[in-house]
Amino acid sequence: MKHRLLxxxxxxxxxxxxxxxxxxxxxxxxxDLARVxxxxxxxxxxxxxxxxxxxxxxxxxxxxxxxxxTHDGKLIFACDLEAGATAHYxxxxxxxQMKMQTYACGxxxxxxxxxxxxxxxxxAFRAYGPALQRSGERAFGYDVWLKNNTDLPVVEERYNKxxxxxxxxxxxxxxxxxxxxxxxxxxxxxxxxxxxxxxDAYKVGPTLGGGATAIIDGRRIxxxxxxxxxxxxxxxxxxxxARLTYNPTEVDDVELTEVRTISIDKGSFLNETTVVYNADxxxxxxxxxxxxxxxxxxRTTYCAEDGYVTYAEPVEAPDGGELYLAMLFPKAWDGAENxxxxxxxxxxxxxxxxxxxxxxxxxGEELTYYWGALWNKSTLVDVPDKEAFDKIMADVAxxxxxxxxxxxxxxxxx
Length: 414
Fold this sequence. Notes:
This protein is an alpha+beta fold. Helices cover about 15% and strands about 40% of the residues.
């Protein structure tokens, strides 16, 4: 009995000793802005963490903080910090099986002509795939799906309702005898209607939609059409990342292949997007990033100093409120304007041009910018009007200029 007790005490002591060895992460907010839910990222290899290994991040109150390992070897977690404050976290290797709630996620929907749809806890988006291109429908840019009343994923549920085979068969059957009933049933499952958590009320068509980038040749926009290949790199719980490769485009006898990497985090309404044009030769490429203008007198704001553009438009739905869209360029842009339809531009019905930002990029070099949207009818973010949205964008731009400072301390193990 004495030997068993001694063995148990030694084992307990060893476990406590291991738990006391906690690597540290110190986060400093040296800006004059509160940082609420901002994602912190550190090199996971610093802590010897690999995919499939059990670990947790704990805050100063020893509470577990949701975290994620990303495809590029980062450990990420959300941090709340007042202006000028410092927070301490620890990374603990624990054999703890804990399922994290997913907030940022997405996938390709082959059942809906290869849509690639994704979301954060605040907003959702869509990029069109090869099956849509083969159909002949012309939709080039990013689509925006509105979210409300829940910070949990909604996209999967919306597709399931819209595409349910039994419901579709019932609608088709009703159309033979009762068109009104068929329309009512279709409306009850359509993601174009708000059933309590938002809807798809945004129109893209043959435009850049909510912030896509395209090559320009003189005054002509060379639209990229739909993606050809999609690779999901991160799929929650805190970050979604996808790499989209587009079909080659020939410009001045040079074949260019566009690759986009799109990423969004929990707590963000903006997608970080990196665009690169690959070619066999070096070439300067003129590009335009744009938000389609659906208003004849567009309410746009350009802030060259902070590198952002905002735009407001009404949502076409009963009591639809307003949608606010934005692009943010951390590095100075080459030019920006309300680019209204000109001689060589196509003029889709119901549109008047783009809120456009111009840049020149070298083949093989990356252009990184942010784009996204918020809905003033959503309960998830307090954004009552465009002035409030502009203030949010100004704060985001300021935060990008003064990122959180992160220090890691890794202790030796015996």
